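Bumping my old thread because nobody answered last time. Still need a sequence for this structure:
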């Protein structure tokens, strides 16, 4: 399920570390400067607190600093090395405070040496308006008008009705209980049609912040119908991909009668009301999905922007910067987040300044009026892997199942990256966590079969090579 904590967690962290309330925009700016480090961001903001010189979220007045410099030592004030808290230069962990006195060469002061850390210029956000652009720039594919129109309308109407009661996800952030800015629900499929192993029913009970819930609702008949269409489309797309990752699931379903290589057995759904409801930057937890999962997200209702941003690995940050891609998703469109998307990119549905009203082409009741809607409902169809079923998930010292996260900053072509089992208690346990952190070891933990293990045993005809992967990477 979604790791909704990333942006929201960072914001809440910054907020709890700063002396006074700052607007989200100001905190986000500080986080961008601090390259996502909440401690640094709070230092930047706290320097604007009484007793310091840099106004939080405001440009420092250069004139008064020069004035104090000209007035000499008695009037000198500590001046940050960084021109402004809004500058694109990331501060070091403890930004040096320097005093500038009369007698110092003015030019020497103004011509500060460039910061030692090279920063790559930020690339402008790109709007990907068609499937070709999405495939070219991201590890996703976009598919328009994918369900028969009548089915898309029926599914929208039934979910629009039931989602009015969906809950907002709640989790603990230190001493605060925070709530998702959208409503959410989880569904489980009655049977995958391939085997009678329904272990994902148990996994599905842990969808809510790793806490055991009552069994979730099962797919409605419309969801089932949509899911079957989506499975075939995803399977075709996976077949067309130039590369499959070694840790991808290669078990049940491969040789099934329909020759499906991708199946869904659960679905997470969100309702975004109006233009302000959103989901922050995150990559989806892999606890039950495993590494290199494929997730198919169906959009219904109003068109909203889906944003993707790559987490540039540390070894590449000096040569290239991250870029944000915005994909407008209309009613009845599907985005497939292919293998490696969760490892390399974060995604979000940001608040918007404007939004189109959605008018279905079919009335809710035959012959009735067509009402306008301002909500978007998305369904992410997912496959909970049998080799990641609940008894196999390590428990942390708090005694609850850990969460599997990719080491996004150290990915190497999506092959050599590590995955960590981390304590998730903080989200549900009054914000207290044991801080457990353990590297996942597929072999030692007895997981698989994977695409890689099948290739090793010659069970799969597809070949792999680093070269092939590098050509395939987008
Ligand atoms: O609404 C969307 O398109 C994205 C939802 C999402 O990221 C999630 O459920 O994990
Ligand atoms: Fe997500």
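Sorry it took so long. Here it is:
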């Amino acid at each position: 399920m979604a790791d909704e904590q990333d942006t929201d967690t960072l914001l809440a962290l910054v907020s709890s570390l700063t002396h006074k309330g700052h607007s989200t925009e100001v905190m986000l700016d500080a986080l961008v400067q601090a390259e996502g480090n909440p401690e640094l961001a709070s230092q930047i903001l706290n320097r604007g607190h009484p007793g310091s010189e840099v106004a939080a979220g405001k440009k420092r007045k250069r004139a008064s600093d020069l004035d104090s410099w000209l007035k000499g030592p008695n009037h000198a004030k500590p001046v940050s090395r960084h021109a402004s808290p809004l500058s694109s230069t990331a501060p070091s962990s403890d930004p040096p405070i320097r005093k500038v006195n009369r007698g110092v060469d003015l030019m020497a002061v103004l011509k500060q040496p460039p910061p030692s850390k090279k920063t790559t210029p930020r690339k402008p956000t790109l709007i990907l308006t068609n499937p070709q652009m999405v495939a070219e720039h991201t590890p996703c594919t976009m598919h328009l008008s994918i369900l028969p129109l009548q089915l898309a309308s029926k599914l929208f109407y039934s979910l629009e009705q039931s989602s009015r009661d969906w809950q907002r996800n709640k989790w603990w952030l230190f001493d605060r209980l925070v709530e998702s800015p959208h409503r959410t629900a989880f569904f489980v499929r009655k049977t995958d049609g391939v085997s009678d192993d329904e272990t994902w029913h148990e996994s599905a009970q842990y969808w809510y912040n790793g806490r055991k819930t009552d069994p979730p609702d099962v797919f409605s008949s419309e969801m089932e119908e949509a899911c079957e269409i989506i499975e075939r489309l995803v399977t075709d797309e996976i077949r067309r991909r130039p590369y499959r990752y070694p840790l991808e699931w290669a078990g049940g379903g491969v040789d099934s009668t329909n020759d499906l290589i991708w199946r869904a057995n659960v679905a997470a759904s969100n309702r975004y009301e109006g233009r302000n409801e959103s989901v922050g930057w995150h990559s989806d937890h892999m606890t039950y999905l495993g590494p290199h999962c494929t997730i198919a997200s169906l959009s219904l209702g109003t068109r909203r922007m889906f944003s993707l941003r790559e987490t540039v690995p540390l070894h590449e940050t000096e040569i290239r910067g991250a870029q944000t891609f915005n994909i407008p998703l209309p009613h009845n469109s599907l985005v497939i987040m292919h293998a490696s998307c969760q490892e390399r990119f974060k995604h979000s549905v940001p608040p918007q300044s404007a939004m189109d009203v959605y008018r279905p082409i079919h009335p809710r009741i035959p012959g009735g009026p067509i009402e306008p809607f301002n909500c978007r409902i998305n369904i992410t169809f997912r496959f909970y892997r049998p080799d990641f079923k609940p008894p196999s998930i390590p428990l942390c010292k708090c005694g609850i199942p850990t969460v599997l996260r990719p080491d996004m900053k150290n990915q190497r072509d999506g092959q050599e990256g590590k995955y960590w089992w981390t304590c998730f208690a903080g989200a549900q346990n009054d914000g207290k966590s044991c801080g457990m952190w353990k590297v996942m070891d597929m072999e030692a933990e007895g997981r698989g079969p994977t695409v890689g293990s099948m290739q090793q045993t010659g069970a799969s005809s597809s070949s792999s090579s680093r070269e092939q992967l590098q050509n395939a990477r987008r």
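Residues 126-388 form a domain with the Jelly Rolls fold (CATH 2.60.120.590). Let me know if any region looks off to you.
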